[in-house]
Write a structure and sequence with these properties.
The complex is a heterodimer of chains A (142) and B (233). Chain A is of the alpha/beta class and 142 residues long. Chain A has 7 helices and 4 strands. A 4-stranded parallel β-sheet of chain A has the order 2-1-3-4, with helices on both faces. The longest helix of chain A is centred in the C-terminal third of the chain and has 22 residues. The relative contact order of chain A is 0.23. In chain B, 49% of the residues lie in helices and 12% in strands. Classes of the chains: A alpha/beta (142), B alpha/beta (233). At the A-B interface, helix 2, helix 3 and helix 5 of A face helix 1, helix 2 and helix 5 of B.
């Protein structure tokens, strides 16, 4: 990652999975990062645009450092970034965050409970930290 | 289409970058959970690229409706390219126009404007589901089995029961319907019973001659629901 790339916002791309709460957490964590924790230093784009092969979206993931947030092991966000010719500098799995929250009731794919928001905030904080390190030129080992 | 395709597939765009994407996603969820729980299934759009053959065959095995946030129509494009022609395609920005201007991307702190936009789109999706099912005209009693590509989210939500003319009637998602009525400030008295009936009729078939009985039963159940909510506070 060169210096020019480091000046660009890091793209945070969630899977937004529609079937389970994990997908909603990935999405809301992204909004927490891009809207609150690291506005201006991070941005998001529509994963569906990558699925479509939109030229601007494809160019964006190739030209920017990317962090993907996936709800399940199918890792759709990470895989679609890679299929578009980009690379996820860090690929986060929401399910990993659940390991620290045994017994939590996070809500469902439509809405988050307080437990769900707490997990989303933890994921968001991790993403913001990684984005900061990426912009500083330190690429995180996956 | 096989008999297994009696359920309509709904594919929503992810639309992370725009509020219409969030509306698309949440309206789709509402149809799956509440409006047409027994008639719909879904699949994550990105799975068409990242998934396996069963997932890519989704639109070949289900009549499918795509819900897109904007006129780029990524869900429609992705579904048709990787899975097959769709039976219907809705675009939230066309449906809502400027009504989505003040909507938010995050569901956190959703305003009344957000909620009404989601309901409006959900009702349009439900109507499209009905149209597709009517067009498909599957044989009566054909299998309602699930597909290998179906998400776990498509399980029906628990309903509520009413006693109408001495008969117990189950209404899918009744607690959620009541929750919505509370949000819309529908009063739990005779003045609100007509609005209550109108809302429930969206989700449950009520014949004109049954309306009076349903109105009384719904009002009583709604009053119980409100009392329960107040006791929780």
């Amino acid at each position: 990652m060169n210096n020019e790339a480091n000046e660009k916002p890091v793209l945070v791309i969630p899977c937004s999975g529609i079937g389970k709460v994990h997908g909603l957490i990935s999405r809301e964590a992204t909004y927490l990062v891009t809207g609150e924790l690291a506005p201006g230093r991070t941005e998001t784009l529509c994963l569906a645009l990558l699925v479509k092969g939109d030229a601007e979206a494809v160019a964006a993931v190739r030209d920017h450092a990317c962090i993907t947030i996936d709800g399940c092991p199918k890792a759709c966000a990470e895989k679609n970034v890679e299929m578009a010719g980009g690379r996820a500098a860090r690929a986060i799995q929401v399910a990993e965050a659940f390991k620290e929250h045994r017994g939590a009731k996070p809500g469902n794919a439509t809405g988050l409970t307080d437990d769900g928001w707490a997990i989303a905030r933890e994921v968001a904080a991790a993403v913001a930290g990684e984005a900061s390190r990426l912009r500083g030129g330190e690429e995180v080992t996956r | 289409m096989s008999a297994e395709t009696l359920k309509v597939g709904i594919i929503s765009c992810s639309g992370e970058a725009i509020p219409e994407g969030t509306i698309s996603r949440l309206a789709t969820r509402r149809v799956l959970e509440l409006l047409r729980p027994d008639a719909t299934v879904t699949l994550c759009l990105p799975l068409f690229l990242a998934g396996n053959e069963a997932e890519r065959n989704f639109a070949k095995t289900h009549p499918t409706i795509t819900i897109d946030g904007c006129d780029k129509q990524c869900a429609r494009w992705g579904t048709e390219k990787h899975s097959g022609p769709v039976s219907g395609a809705l675009v939230v920005s066309d449906l809502l126009g400027t009504a989505a201007t003040d909507c938010r991307r995050s569901s956190r702190g959703a305003s009344q404007v957000d909620k009404e936009a989601i309901w409006a789109v959900a009702e349009q999706i439900a109507a499209e589901v009905d149209r597709v099912l009517a067009d498909a005209a599957p044989p009566v009693g054909a299998g309602m089995g699930t597909s290998a590509a179906q998400c776990a989210c498509s399980s029906p939500i628990p309903g509520g029961k009413l006693a109408v003319k001495g008969v117990t009637v189950s209404i899918p998602g009744l607690p959620l319907i009541f929750e919505q009525c509370v949000e819309r400030s529908i009063p739990a008295d005779a003045g609100g019973s007509a609005a209550l009936l109108d809302v429930v009729k969206i989700y449950h078939c009520i014949l004109p001659e049954e309306e009076a009985e349903y109105r009384s039963a719904l009002l009583a159940a709604y009053q119980d629901f409100r009392r329960g909510k107040n006791q929780e506070k």
